[in-house]
Amino acid sequence: QVPSMTNPREKSLxxxxxxxxxxxxxxxxxxxxxxKAGALATGLQLQSFGDFAKNGNLPLEQRNEAxxxxxxxxxxxxxxxxxxxxxxxxxxxxxxxxxxxLIAQALAGQYAxxxxxxxxxxxxxxxxxxxxxxxxxxxxxxxxxxxxxxIRDRELGRGQVFxxxxxxxxxxxxxxxxxYGQITKEVTDLTxxxxxxxxxxxxxxxxx
Length: 208
Description:
By secondary structure, the protein is mainly alpha-helical. The chain has helices at 15-19, 24-54, 60-74, 89-144, 151-155, 160-205.
């Protein structure tokens, strides 16, 4: 194990801000918000058609048209809405479950995409760690094998080059390990979130 030269405060930084100058964590959050908003919009549209169909003061033709549009959105999901059941608690729950299922499905998709992207970065980061370890080993060996120097050479700092090379290699190694660790942690965290949303989608919609 190599002693870490990493500033502890850096651990509070998000992974993306370390990996890239423009932090995509905020962009990913936006993608989650947009996915959720899109699914919610469909759910609200479905609810609106349902409310329209429930309104007994409206012409029958308009209510049936609203039911048709609601059932078009639902597709094969659940029980077909009719004038007889659209106002029941069962229909209300069906709309709620469908909406929540759409949201879970949309979020699961975003998590899956993000995880796939991170796995590519993780593989590259692992290669960087391996290369940095080799460079450090070489620099450390050169330092240990540094030839004996006269007092005059030491005064002139001619041995400093070995120390500088070793320290630079150590910093590069620590940085690469830190980046790999952060990517791995984010993959683990996002996988947990994906599993939660995928399970919810599967339970509510029967698919992810």
